[in-house]
Amino acid sequence: MGTIKMNTLCPVCGFNLGFPAWKGYSASHETCLSCGIEFGYHDVMEASGIIGTKEEIYMMWRKKWIEKGMPWSVSEAYKPTNWNPKKQLKNIGIEI
User: Fold this and answer.
1) Cβ–Cβ under 8 Å, residues 14 and 92
2) Which of 1, 6, 46, 57 sits at 20 to 30 Å (Cα–Cα) from 25?
3) What is the pLDDT of residues 16-40, one digit of tens each?
4) 36 neighbors 30 (Cβ within 8 angstroms)
5) Where residue 5 falls among pLDDT bands split at 50, 70, 90?
6) Quick check: is 2 in a domain?
7) Domain with 58 in it
């Protein structure tokens, strides 16, 4: 019996979260340390007030994050050594 591999990449920025953002219909309610999106809040129309599908919300969030210069969203103490947001985006097929 095979194991199911859970995708642990942030759907906005490609950062390896270490956990899946969503498991079925259940959000992790965790925040991506890289881009700052909170799963189950920022990506839910009813909570965020942003109209669109999750994928559309991720695209809008990504666009704003890139326009801001792709800043690390939390304390520098959590920032990985040699962090490269452009390389990270390639994890989800986004070329900058």
Assistant:
1) yes
2) 1
3) 999 999 999 999 999 999 999 999 9
4) no
5) low
6) no
7) 22-90
Burial call 3-16: b when 16+ CB within 10 Å, e when fewer: eeeeeebbbbbbbe
**Is there a domain that residue 79 lies in?**
yes
The partner residues of 31 in beta bridges, in order of sequence, read: 38
Residue 78 falls inside a structural domain: yes
What's residue 39's pLDDT? Answer: 96
Beta strands in the chain (DSSP E): 22-23, 26-27
Q: How many domains does the chain have?
A: 1
According to the model, what pLDDT value does residue 45 have? 81
- pLDDT of 51-90, one tens digit each? 889 999 999 999 999 999 999 999 888 899 999 999 999 9
> Does 77 map to a domain?
yes
Tokens of 14: 């490609």
